[in-house]
Design brief:
two-stranded antiparallel sheet, alpha/beta, 35% helix, 9-stranded parallel beta sheet, 13 strands
Length: 394
């Protein structure tokens, strides 16, 4: 796959476009309103921006049947070649032990029969589901609410992988970090001991450092917080960070994810908007995990509504918030996040891995054929990314 990263787009006729791995809404459209989602309009937006996308949806329990119909519609359009830039669909939830910015009524525990229905959607383009490794722990919101009809991960993970659906690890409780970290490793072990019916990575993650127990301040979102940023980061000694010491530095959960990623057993997502995670921390994290194991994730939403809930923005940053001041989504497109990464001296091949190469490997994507792009789009796309010094990364 990576040989396509060298040479010009005109020579290969098959550019590897950057991938919006985890995004919630483009052009004012909330992807979670999937029955109304105009996939051809999304295709147009992606083509215009020069990106591939994996729209990420929330799922209300009573809408499972409707979601199945949507996935079949998506699959028909994908196979007909009508939406080549929309390379998969993902779910955030429903099995989340801590819903965080996720709408509370999109968090629920599927039964065995419902897991089987969800897993079969992998055959129609569902490429990953965010789930919490500690969903069945005593601190989870599900504790005491799951019964014999609700299976454990030793059954769920092989079922998903058998249909090409990757577990994406995220949304942790904060009560027992050591237990949560051990459960991360358990799920990765299950995945690597299971027959895999897909391409690329078996396990991915939600965004690193968000919605997990930490021993550091990972973001500086207000004027007051930013006033202490330099002193705080200096006290962390980022250049001295090592994978072996990450348990003590940042906590057992991010340490477990970072070590598994560095070992090539996880393709890890991390946000580069500078608001979900400070850019200096994000840059150091991907250096430790390896750019070839790290994927840029925007968590982007272009409107003030997501998953059926109204959102607000303040003056301190560009994040979208739920009521109660809970972060729900970001607002920066992929091109801006790539510029942010360049500000941390991530350029050329490294930037291409972070924004495109790792995602192509992780999700088994193939480069678009020139015939799949509108007239003039191939040259325009190449020119756009060449301006960021990445189109010809070798």
């Amino acid at each position: 796959m990576m040989e396509n990263l060298s040479g010009s787009a005109e020579q290969t006729h098959a550019p590897l476009l950057p991938v919006e791995v985890h995004c919630h809404g483009f052009a004012g459209v909330d992807f979670s309103e999937f029955s109304l989602l105009d996939l051809e309009l999304l295709e147009e937006v992606c083509a215009r921006e020069g990106v591939l996308s994996i729209p990420t949806l929330y799922l209300h329990h009573h809408r499972l049947g409707e979601f199945e119909k949507f996935m079949r519609r998506y699959d028909r359009m994908r196979r007909a070649g009508r939406i080549p830039h929309v390379v998969g669909v993902a779910l955030e939830g429903p099995l989340l032990s801590s819903h965080g910015g996720t709408p509370a009524d999109t968090v629920w525990a599927p039964t065995r029969a419902e897991w089987e229905r969800l897993a079969r959607l992998g055959d129609h383009g569902l490429c990953y589901m965010v789930l919490s490794p500690d969903a069945f722990s005593p601190a989870s919101d599900f504790h005491g609410q799951t019964f014999a009809r609700h299976p454990g991960f030793e059954w769920i993970v092989p079922l998903l992988l058998g249909h090409g659906v990757r577990p994406a690890l995220g949304h942790f409780t904060r009560t027992d970090p050591l237990l949560s970290a051990r459960l991360v490793t358990d799920i990765v072990d299950i995945a690597w001991d299971t027959e895999w019916n897909g391409k690329g990575a078996r396990v991915v993650t939600d965004h690193l450092f968000n919605d997990m127990p930490l021993t550091i301040r990972h973001a500086f979102r207000t004027t007051r917080a930013r006033a202490a940023r330099e002193a705080t980061l200096a006290s962390y000694d980022l250049p001295g960070w090592t994978l072996d010491a990450m348990d003590e530095i940042a906590g057992p959960v991010p340490a477990a994810i970072m070590r598994e990623a560095a070992a090539g057993r996880i393709a890890a997502c991390i946000n580069f908007d500078g608001e979900h995670v400070d850019l200096a921390i994000a840059g150091r994290a991907v250096a430790l995990m390896g750019l070839e194991n790290s994927m840029m994730m925007t968590d982007r939403c272009d409107s003030a509504r997501l998953g059926g809930q109204d959102l607000t923005q303040g003056e301190e940053n560009g994040l979208w918030y739920q009521s109660g001041g809970i972060v729900a989504a970001g607002s920066q497109p992929l091109a801006q996040q790539m510029r942010n990464a360049m500000g941390r001296d991530i350029r050329g091949r490294q930037l291409w891995d972070l924004a495109a190469g790792t995602a192509h490997r992780a999700f088994g994507l193939t480069a678009l054929d020139a015939g799949q792009l509108p007239d003039g789009m191939l040259a325009a796309t190449h020119e756009q990314w060449a301006a960021l010094d990445i189109a010809d990364a070798a």
